[in-house]
Amino acid sequence: MSRLLLPLLLGTALCAAPAEIRQYATRVDIQGDGSGRATATVTLAGDPSDTVEIPVGFKARGFALTEGPKGLKLEPYGSAIRVVLPPERGAWTFTFTFTALDTFIPEAVPEGEKARIPATSRVVRHAFVQTFEDPIAAYSVEAVLPPGYRFQAIKEALPKVRKTESEPRVRLGRTDGRQTAILRVTRLKQGDSAAMTLEATPSSRSILWLVTGLAIAGLYLFLFRDMVQSRH
Amino acid sequence: MAAEAPAAPPSHSLQDLLDMEKMVLSSKTREAQSPTEKWMRYLGFPGGILLFLLVLYLPAGAGLSGAAQTGTACFALALVWWVTEPFPTYVTSLILMFLLLVTRTSPAKPIMDVLGMEVIWLNLLAFILSSMLVKTRLAKRMALWLIIKFGRKASWALLAFVILQLALSPLIPATAARCVMTLPLIIVVGTIYGSTEQTPNNFGKNLLLLNLAGISVLTSVTMTGSSANLVAVGFIQSMTGHRVYYMDWMIAGAPIAILTMLIMWFLGRKFIFPIAPEDQFPKVEGGLELVERQHKAMGGFSFQEKKALVIFGVVLFLWMTDIFHMRWFGVEISAPFAALVGAVLVLFPRYGVLQWSEADIPWHLLIFSAGAYAGGLALEDTGAAEWGVRTLFGGMNLRSIPFGAAFTIIMAVMMYSHLLTTSKTVRTIILIPIIITMSKALGWDPVSMALPAALCIDWVVGLPISGKPNVILFSTNQYTVGENFKFGMATCTVGMVLLVLSAATWFHWIGITPSFWAMPQ
Asked: Which residues of B touch A224 (CB under 8 A)?
């Protein structure tokens, strides 16, 4: 019996093609209160009625499937979501939304320690750990700042850019008058991670620079006028 | 009122001219000389501030972070002040470092860390070696010999230095080391032709700026001329799969570099800084016979000179053989550490050549370099430089123009971009991958753009902040930032013309570039 069972099991394992994520793109519209309205679009290929767990990369709640093929089901599962694929084999693109929490937060300063960024600044942080068993061919996450804010600096962008890549890991841009940051990674294997940490500040600049700059320039022109005055 | 009689040209005795102990580099602030310079200084200060405010308050570009915008504003201010010099250049560098901090462009540590960078160490140690050459009179002996052999006329003296730099470029990969090696010779030969810090003349300007161009441009003769060249070759191989061999590089790069230097040798003394007839010959009372007598009077090599020769030989040997270090010693002794070995030998108690107090180290120059590097690194780290290049290329519709036009634009960006950066390697890392990606997107063989672009990496001749040799030679105070800019831009333009002509002709014939008139696929 065991002689028959072993080849059967091996054959089943070999025949079962693994699910494959071809594309995974998330856009997070950050709100002023620190939460974010996230929309994720995934293109996934797998076996009929297979159930796969997809990591989300955010502390999240309120998952809802907004677009997808008939028969595809979605259910939250800890820090991931569980997707039940339709009953026929194929590749499907589906979109789901959720509320991402703590996407836009002030820096936590432990008591007795110095703050490293101004109180008006906020930190945008995203860390994605690839727990899916097969590689994700293309992963991206786009953070859209609330109006009135801009990115001050990219503090962290992982993984480091490979020699064969010409694009920076995180690229800043603009959409509808709001600044965006897109993290893009290709070929994420199980256990790999992708992360970005950015500092955002109010986009208006202090008028102090203008006043001080003009005052110093004017003072210099007055005090050093003898440099160009004729001695006769 | 009677016109003032022109001042009589200073007459120099050879002894005065060759008293190199007086030619210290370590305590210089140049006075404004012409009315134009005075006006530049007067208006440069508010001009820099206005440019800073303009960049700071401009609506931010889509892909530009706040730090990148403030970094650009700070660098723009410093650039105006370095060129117009309302402050000495090192004070501007200190102000730039402070501004980078208070505008939150860079944290304190990376700004402070630039003083520990390899290039600063190399400069510092190379100045100790240079002091050794001066103190032991080896520099004086070599300069006298050079004048006797080649210096009977200004044009031949200048050409001799071009040949000297060409001979050194494949041997010593560090441009700063090459510069410091030849600096004492340059100063003495310039002085013999009447160009000193107090009375710089056009021979001196030609000599210093031709050497500056020679050190930089001739680095592109060989692939191993600088580490940035190797970085570019690495990018070409990893991103296109095309391996650039030593001879590929040399066949493409050497003719352009050498021809440019010969053209600049001619243009410089005829048109850019025309040498007056009276400056065409050494200004030494008693003529060249006196120089010869002085050379003979030095007698044979002194013991101190021999020691200096041996020490310099050791350093030179380490610089030239860096490719074998790992095999021989199990560790790579980089250029600064080779100079460090030399400095230890030079300063060795009892058996060395110099006391610490005799080393002429221009600290103001190191501070100037540190500020420039801090500014350049800020532009790189914040992504401002990369954003600028992409925006520039993105704004031009390169798809609708033939290869030759796209080639010219891309090479011009590569060639002149050195005015905004302070590191060849950083410029390579930013630009070469973008050029490769863009060429692929346009349908051109990426090597047809990337290899010629790589040949421009070392042409950092426009400003004193553009490279280490620039900073070192600027310390002689014999030319202004504006004059440096004029000669440097002429050099780059000659190089550009030669590069474009090459792309239209023999680059195409030997298979590097497609037809000049081909349209993108």
From this structure: 42, 45
